[in-house]
Amino acid sequence: MDEYAFSLGPEGWHYFRALLAEYEQNPSIGLEETAFYRFFNDDRIQSVRYLNDLLFLHDPIKRSGNNGFNFYFGTYPWGDFWTKYSVLGGKPWGYHYDAAEGKMTRDLYGYRQNL
Questions:
Q1: pLDDT tens-digit profile of 80-106?
Q2: What span, in angstroms and rounded, lies between the C-alpha atoms of 10 and 21?
Q3: Strands (DSSP E) found in 1-115
Q4: pTM of the full predicted structure?
């Protein structure tokens, strides 16, 4: 699975696997018809601001954020140990973090690079 718990296994679901499976079944499928497109255009995904929003995508009550804890993307309990920018707890990033904190993390891992 990836860091957001989307399963890459044969019985799980991940947006990249879904895109490939649909293309294998129908190489002429239009982008708007794919689960990948529908996933990223879903209102719930479009409204994601914090890591909590994504981790509790399945639970609207917990997702509402009334618990007072909102973690930015990149803030993981295990830290950011996979890069040279490693820090305990991770290094926040993303559009909402940049807007809320006045930062610019688009190229945090190098120009046009990501994890």
A1: 655 555 555 667 878 888 888 888 888
A2: 11
A3: 73-75, 90-93
A4: 0.60
